[in-house]
Amino acid sequence: SDRLATANQELKRLDNAKSEFISIASHQLRTPLTAIKGYTSLILEGSYGKIDNQIQDVINKVYLANNRLIELVENLLSISRLESGRMQYNYQLVQLADIVKDAMSMFAVVAKKQDINLEVLTPEMPLPLLSLDAGKIREVISNLIDNALKYTEKGSVTVKMEQVGDEKIRLSVKDTGIGIKKEDLEHIFLKFARSKETEKLYVGGTGLGLYVGRTFVEKHGGRLWAESEGHGHGSEFIFELPISRNGV
Ligand code: ADP
Questions:
Q1: What pairing do the DSSP bridges indicate for beta strands 92-94 and 116-121?
Q2: Which numbered atom of ligand 1 lies nearest the CA of 173?
Q3: Which of these, 131, 169, 191, 247, has the minimum number of CB atoms within 10 Å of its CB?
Q4: What tens digit of pLDDT does each residue of 128-150 get?
Q5: DSSP letter at 189?
């Protein structure tokens, strides 16, 4: 029993060291990636003069690949913060539609390039305000839209917001892509989990986004789940958040 206790302590020490390493590495990676994002977008906007179409195309690819890398680093940072219990939440009363609008701005170019119709459906009446950590919920929404675009070769991606009864707001991201097999619908929310079909279409994924997303949504008292009629039939990712009763 003594040896077990020592081994346990050693495992905990290694686990902390691993989390620390991921945290430091991610912070160090984020700075240069942000610089690449800034400069490439300046080039694309024409701030350094006119560039021909071929170069524009290449820089665009650099910009998009770099965005994916930034997202990966964000996910790694989130994982290490979650695991070490250092994740902090800053709740504020916000309009979900504003967060969606903000997240969407990143994807218009990618959707257009892939010839995918990306649209947002918002109810006519403004939704009630929610008490949220806007940064975290934006990350969840961005991950869902990014996935929908990654795993859809043609068709559309639809983001829909609606109020469900008096107590909840629902957001769904529906795509016409490769879909998800029944037995994978829960499995994909595990850390580092990816489905086999996915590996063929998009090799660069990590399987972290949904794990982080579900953790964030649950911290807000909500639920996140996936629905699909199976492989080849598109997917829908849905989350529901409670409407705060007392404005906090
Ligand atoms: P990643 O996309 O980096 O692999 P995620 O945690 O975001 O990591 O997703 C985990 C897995 O869930 C993906 O690898 C894929 O198999 C599946 N998945 C996620 N979104 C979709 C989608 N819109 N359509 C089909 N499969 C999806």
A1: unpaired
A2: 23
A3: 247
A4: 999 999 999 999 999 999 999 99
A5: G
